[in-house]
Design a protein that fits this description.
This protein has a single domain (about 5-105), classed as Arc Repressor Mutant, subunit A, CATH 1.10.10. It is about 60% helix and about 10% strand. The protein contains five helices and three strands. It has helices at about 5-20, 30-40, 45-55, 80-105, 115-124; strands spanning about 25, 60-65, 75-80. α1 packs across α2, α1 crosses α3 (about 45-55) and α1 (about 5-20) crosses α4 (about 80-105). It is mainly alpha-helical. The longest helix is centred in the last third of the chain and has 26 residues, at about 80-105. β2 (about 60-65) and β3 (about 75-80) form a beta hairpin.
């Protein structure tokens, strides 16, 4: 998969962070790794931490400090109930938006048994 443009990544980062935190509490570096491993590419801390701060300011995530094991403490992030509700809304909005973009970029889905222009171009 090609790495998405930085603007696209910044736009979907809050949704990706909420989705990742739905699986459980995490800290910044682990979130960076999970996002990169998902195929979205590397996210810089200078992009991640302001996004997490905005989510915390909005009440979507809760932040706590924990002592580090043999090193500095870590800031842990956890999804709040408001964050879960926001995640549900944003997932629905994302699915509708990505379907509309897909239709615009690839054309409408062809009836069963026929090819779209995009599919014919990919077969060449």
């Amino acid at each position: 998969m090609e790495t998405p443009s930085p603007a696209w990544l910044r736009a979907v980062l809050p949704l990706c962070l909420l989705s990742t935190l739905e699986r459980g509490e995490s800290y910044g570096y682990a979130l960076l790794q999970q996002i990169e491993e998902s195929g979205l590419g590397a996210v810089k801390g200078a992009v991640l931490y302001p996004a997490l701060t905005r989510l915390a300011d909005d009440g979507a995530v809760e932040v706590r400090w924990a002592p580090g094991e043999g090193g500095p403490g870590r800031k842990y992030y956890r999804l709040t109930e408001a964050g879960r509700e926001r995640l549900l809304r944003e997932r629905r909005a994302w699915r509708a938006f990505s379907a509309a973009v897909g239709t615009t970029v690839d054309g409408p889905r062809a009836p069963h048994g026929t090819d779209t222009l995009h599919e014919r171009e990919n077969d060449r």
